[in-house]
Write a structure and sequence with these properties.
By secondary structure, the protein is mainly beta. It has 7 domains: 7-142, Immunoglobulin-like, CATH 2.60.40; 150-292, Mannose-Binding Protein A, subunit A (Mannose-Binding Protein A, Chain A), CATH 3.10.100.10; 314-390, Immunoglobulins (Immunoglobulin-like), CATH 2.60.40; 395-469, Immunoglobulin-like (Sandwich), CATH 2.60.40; 477-546, Immunoglobulins (Immunoglobulin-like, Sandwich); 558-628, Immunoglobulin-like, CATH 2.60.40; 634-717, Immunoglobulin-like (Sandwich). It is 5% helix and 44% strand. The protein is built from 4 helices and 63 strands. A 6-stranded mixed sheet has the order 3-25-13-7-10-9, covered by helices on one side. Strand 55 and strand 56 (621-628) form a beta hairpin.
C-alpha cells in the first residue's frame, strides 16, 4: 500500500484551503498556516486556530509536534507570551510541545487553548536550516506524520519479546485505526518513528521464515521483501540498518529492532533474537512502536491538523552565454514568492525582479545573484546565475594531408571551443565537429574550411585545410642488382639510386621486414632482398629485387699444393679443391696476369715463384710463395768458367731463413758445407783438389713460413 501522499496535491489543497478540520466525538479543530519565514526570527505556527465541542468546553491535553524537518537541539516550539491557565512542556527528543492545565487533574478551557495555540512560535538556532517545517496539531498523544497520514506511538514495556509486542500492537486501536508493529518504508518515516520517539523498540520486520530474507511481516506491507543477506547484503527496498547490521549473532537474530540512540546511527535498526538481549545491555528491549493507518476498514480520523512554514527556495536557474559582448537574459524559478536579482552575493544593489532578468551591455563575464522573497523573507543564500561572455575563438593551427588515394585525415586546433568543418566557404551546415576530420573517399584534391565555435560564438572567417591527392607512382633505380658479401667484411650496403621524388623505402628479405626506411641498408647475410619506395602521398612503387651472395678470400698453405722440382718438368698443383666457399682462379708470378680456372702450372724454372689465388666474385687475392729447387748431377771444376762450382739452383736466402748444405765423399766423410751466401763448392778439400769421383750431398732448408725441406743425393766431380 502506498504510504506517501502526492505532495503536489497536498500542497495544492493546502494553499487553497489553508486549514484542516478535525473532530473528536463532537469536537472539531481547525488550523490554518502556510507561511514563509525568515531564518532567525520567531514565527507563529498557525495563522488561525479554533476548537469547538458542543458537548464540552474543556479538554485534558493538546499536542503540537514538529513532524517534518525537525532539527533536534536547534528547533523549538514555545508560547510567545504567558498564559496563566496553560502549562507548556517541551520534549526535545520528540520535538513535541504538550499543553496541559496548570491545575493538575483539571482540563483546559477550549477558549484558553485556542488563544495559547495561536501564540505558539517556532524558533531555530541552526546555522543551516532545513527550509521546510511541518507541524502536527493533535488531540491524541500519538505522533502524526503528514507525509504518510499515519500515527506512530512508542509503547514502553521493558523486556517484552517481539512476538508479545506483535500481538499487543495488533490488539491496539487509535481513534478507529487498527494498530500493528511499525513498517518504516522511507527515510522520513524512519527518522520520525525512530529518532523522534521516546524510546527504542521492536518494529515489524523479520527473516524468521527464510534466513537472510528480510521482509515486513506486519501491517499493509506484510510480505514485502526489502533486504537480502547480512551486513553486506543487497537492499531491494528502503532499509536503515545500523553499522555492522544485520549480523545474525549466534545464528538466532531474526527480528528487527530500533537501536538504542547511544549506539551508532540514531534511529537505525539492528537484528535481535525474539526475546532480545539480556537485561542490563543496550540491546535489551525497551518496548515497541505501533503504527496506525493504511489498514483495510480503518476509519478516517479527525483528531489532527497540519500547518507548514517554509523558507522560499530557488529551484532552478538558467545561465546565459554571449559572444564577445552584448546583453543576455538569465532566469530562475522559486518555490514561492518573487525573485529578486542582485549584483553581489551579499548586500549589493538590487538590479531586477521577476523570473527573467536582462543584463545591461556586457563585455566581460558577469555573475548576478537571485533570491526568492515572500513577505520580505528571502532565501538564506543567494544563488549565482552567470552571463558568460566568451572571447571569439580562433583557429590556432591546421594540418593538410597528402594522400595517394582513399580518405584524407585533416586536423585543426582552436583556441577554445569546438572545430566546425565545412565543405565550402558558404555552406551553412558543418560536415563534421572535432579536431580530426576523416574525409570521404576522394578522387581529386579537395579543400575544406574550418571555424572555431564556443557556445555559438564562431570565428568570423573560415580557414582552408587541404586534402591533396597525388597518385604518382614512385620511380627509382638500383645501384646493382647483385652484390657479393665477403665474409671477412661482415656487412655490405645495398642501395637505390635516381629517385624521382622524396621517398621512404621498405626493405625486406625472405624472413625479415627491416626497420630502416632510407634509400640504402646494410646487410649481413646472403639472400634475396626486395625494396619498394613510398611517396610522401603514400603511393607504393613496384618491387625491385636484389641478390646478395656470400663468398670469401681463399686460404692456401703448403698442405694444399703439390710441388714437383728437381725434375725435367718442374710444376705446382693445387690439390685441395676447397680453399674456401668461393669460386677461385689462379695465376703464377703475376698478380695482374692471366688467371686460369685450374690451379696447375708446369715447366717452372728453378727459383722462387708466387702462386696467386683470386676469388671470382671479388673478395680478394691471396698469394703463396714457393721454391723450385734443382740439384746438378755433375760439375767440372777446371777453371773454364763452365760448371766450375756445385750448388743448388733455386735457393734464395730471402726465402730460406735456415739452410744447411753438406758434401760427403763416398765413405760418408764430411768434405764441405756450403754457406748460405757462398757461390758453391769448387771441388777442393783442405786446399787440395779432389779427384774425379762420386760425391753425396745432404740439404736441410727452412723457409720463411717455417716449412722444412730435407733432401739427399749424389753427383759426379769430373776433371
Amino acid at each position: 500500500m502506498q504510504k506517501i501522499i502526492n505532495k503536489n496535491l497536498y500542497y495544492f489543497l493546502f494553499l487553497l484551503i489553508f486549514s484542516v478540520k478535525a473532530s473528536f466525538g463532537q469536537a472539531s479543530i481547525s488550523a490554518s498556516g502556510n507561511q514563509s519565514f525568515c531564518a532567525g526570527s520567531p514565527i507563529n505556527i498557525v495563522t488561525d486556530f479554533s476548537i469547538s465541542d458542543p458537548s464540552s468546553t474543556s479538554i485534558q491535553a493538546f499536542y503540537i509536534q514538529i513532524s517534518e524537518g525537525y532539527q533536534r537541539g536547534f528547533d523549538r516550539l514555545s508560547l510567545a507570551t504567558f498564559h496563566p491557565s496553560i502549562l507548556p512542556t517541551w520534549n526535545e527528543d520528540e520535538g513535541k510541545l504538550t499543553l496541559l492545565s496548570v491545575m493538575g487533574g483539571t482540563e483546559m478551557l477550549l477558549t484558553d487553548l485556542e488563544n495559547a495555540v495561536k501564540d505558539i512560535v517556532f524558533t531555530a538556532a541552526a546555522n543551516t536550516i532545513i527550509p521546510e517545517k511541518k507541524f502536527s496539531l493533535s488531540i491524541g498523544d500519538a505522533n502524526y506524520l503528514p507525509e504518510t497520514d499515519h500515527f506512530y506511538k512508542f509503547i514502553s514495556n521493558v523486556g517484552i519479546s517481539w512476538n508479545q509486542a506483535n500481538i499487543a500492537a495488533e490488539n491496539s486501536n487509535y481513534y478507529g485505526r487498527k494498530g500493528y508493529l511499525a513498517t518504516l518504508t522511507s527515510e522520513i518515516e524512519a527518522n520520525f518513528a525512530g529518532k523522534q520517539s521516546t524510546g527504542a523498540g521492536w518494529i515489524g520486520a523479520s527473516d524468521v521464515e527464510n534466513e537472510g530474507e528480510w521482509k515486513w511481516v506486519t501491517g499493509p506491507e506484510a510480505g514485502t521483501v526489502f533486504w537480502l543477506g547480512e551486513v553486506y547484503g543487497t537492499g531491494i527496498g528502503f532499509s536503515k540498518w545500523n553499522n555492522g547490521e544485520p549480523n545474525n549473532t549466534n545464528n538466532n537474530e531474526d527480528y528487527a529492532h530500533i537501536t538504542d540512540p547511544s549506539v551508532g546511527i540514531p534511529g537505525a535498526w539492528n537484528d535481535l533474537p525474539n526475546i532480545g538481549d539480556p537485561p542490563g545491555t543496550l540491546y535489551h528491549p525497551q518496548g515497541y512502536i505501533v503504527e496506525y493507518g493504511g489498514m483495510s476498514g480503518d476509519n478516517p480520523t479527525n483528531v489532527q491538523a497540519t500547518t507548514r512554514i517554509f523558507i522560499p527556495q530557488i529551484l532552478s536557474i538558467v545561465d546565459a552565454t554571449i559572444c564577445e559582448s552584448g546583453t543576455a537574459t538569465i532566469s530562475a524559478t522559486a518555490s514561492d514568492g518573487n525573485i529578486l536579482w542582485f549584483d553581489a552575493p551579499t548586500n549589493g544593489t538590487q538590479v531586477g525582479m521577476g523570473n527573467d532578468f536582462t543584463s545591461p551591455f556586457l563585455t566581460n563575464t558577469t555573475t548576478y545573484y537571485a533570491t526568492a522573497s515572500v513577505n520580505f523573507c528571502t532565501t538564506l543564500l543567494r544563488t549565482a546565475v552567470t552571463v558568460t561572455v566568451n572571447p571569439r575563438p580562433t583557429i590556432t593551427s591546421t594540418t593538410d594531408d597528402l594522400i595517394c588515394s582513399g580518405k584524407a585525415t585533416l586536423t585543426a586546433n582552436a583556441s577554445a571551443g569546438q572545430v566546425f568543418w565545412y565543405d565550402s566557404l558558404t555552406s551553412l551546415t558543418p560536415v563534421f565537429l572535432g579536431n580530426s576530420f576523416e574525409t570521404p573517399v576522394l578522387t581529386s584534391s579537395t579543400t575544406y574550411y574550418v571555424t572555431a565555435n564556443l557556445d555559438d560564438c564562431e570565428t568570423t572567417s573560415r580557414t582552408p585545410v587541404n586534402a591533396i591527392l597525388d597518385d604518382t607512382i614512385p620511380q627509382f633505380d638500383l645501384v646493382q642488382n647483385e652484390y657479393v658479401l665477403c665474409n671477412d667484411i661482415g656487412s655490405i650496403v645495398i642501395e637505390t639510386s635516381n629517385p624521382q621524388g622524396n621517398y621512404t623505402y621498405v626493405w625486406r628479405n625472405e624472413t625479415t621486414l627491416f626497420s630502416e626506411n632510407s634509400s640504402s641498408i646494410s646487410v649481413t647475410a646472403e639472400g634475396n632482398y626486395s625494396v619498394v619506395a613510398i611517396s610522401e602521398a603514400g603511393c607504393v612503387s613496384d618491387e625491385k629485387m636484389i641478390l646478395v651472395r656470400n663468398s670469401e678470400i681463399a686460404t692456401i698453405t703448403k698442405d694444399d699444393v703439390i710441388i714437383t722440382d728437381d725434375s725435367t718438368n718442374n710444376s705446382i698443383q693445387v690439390a685441395n679443391p676447397t680453399l674456401g666457399i668461393g669460386d677461385y682462379e689462379f695465376a703464377i708470378d703475376n698478380e695482374f696476369g692471366n688467371y686460369v680456372d685450374v690451379g696447375f702450372f708446369q715447366n717452372l724454372s728453378p727459383g722462387i715463384h708466387t702462386l696467386f689465388v683470386r676469388d671470382k666474385l671479388g673478395c680478394g687475392v691471396v698469394s703463396f710463395r714457393f721454391s723450385i729447387l734443382a740439384y746438378p748431377k755433375f760439375f767440372t771444376p777446371n777453371g773454364d768458367g763452365e760448371n766450375d762450382l756445385w750448388t743448388i739452383s733455386g735457393f734464395d736466402t730471402s726465402f730460406y731463413t735456415i739452410s744447411k748444405i753438406s758434401i760427403f765423399d763416398r765413405f760418408g766423410k764430411l768434405i764441405y758445407q756450403i754457406e748460405p751466401n757462398s757461390q758453391g763448392w769448387n771441388g777442393d778439400y783442405q786446399g787440395k783438389k779432389l779427384p774425379s769421383n762420386s760425391y753425396w750431398f745432404r740439404v736441410l732448408l727452412t723457409d720463411i713460413n717455417g716449412n722444412t725441406i730435407e733432401k739427399s743425393g749424389n753427383f759426379s766431380l769430373i776433371r
